[in-house]
Amino acid sequence: SQKIEQNSEALNIQEGKTATLTCNYTNYSPAYLQWYRQDPGRGPVFLLLIRENEKEKRKERLKVTFDTTLKQSLFHITASQPADSATYLCALTSGTYKYIFGTGTRLKVLA
Amino acid sequence: NAGVTQTPKFQVLKTGQSMTLQCAQDMNHEYMSWYRQDPGMGLRLIHYSVGAGITDQGEVPNGYNVSRSTTEDFPLRLLSAAPSQTSVYFCASSPAGLARTGELFFGEGSRLTVL
Predict the structure, then answer these.
(1) Which residue of A46, B21, B23, B62 has the lowest C-beta tally within 10 Å?
(2) Distance CA B51, CA B94 (A)
(3) What is the mean pLDDT of chain B?
């Protein structure tokens, strides 16, 4: 069955460092991969989208890579700040209206 | 713009009761959807709609009904609540041009407990 895996353990990093989160998937050929941020008690907020034919996408301090051979996406936050502390979700779609979400990785940036 | 508005934010039901979770968006989005989020499970798609009068099932549709009579509203009905439906429910919308690629706009969620 289709599956997305994100590191379920929380990631703690020091302020100013680069946070790297991983999203692996199996039994799926996505056309689009998205990353969302979710704060406690809130709905997810869209951050970045990357297409299957794109290797890398950047937006301000965020960078996403997409390796369809490894079936993996990496999400980087450079110069991390305590305000970046949240749960980050990855999601896939093959171009239909249905999405598959990962369980998310909780990031905590320590001051 | 209020974005995607969900009501109620919290609800407690007894097994067998029925209720409707409301979702409204003021962005004129054609695509609307309902997800449930459970610990360790990620967001799972319940039902979705690509326009008024058009709905389809997602991954976990059993026990839930939807209808889409207007562009703005997409209510989710639980006909006979079960403890397994205890969850946090999210409504999400997207304009037609982005719905296939994945930029979803989420509401703040409705936390439902079924006793």
Answers:
(1) B62
(2) 11
(3) 94
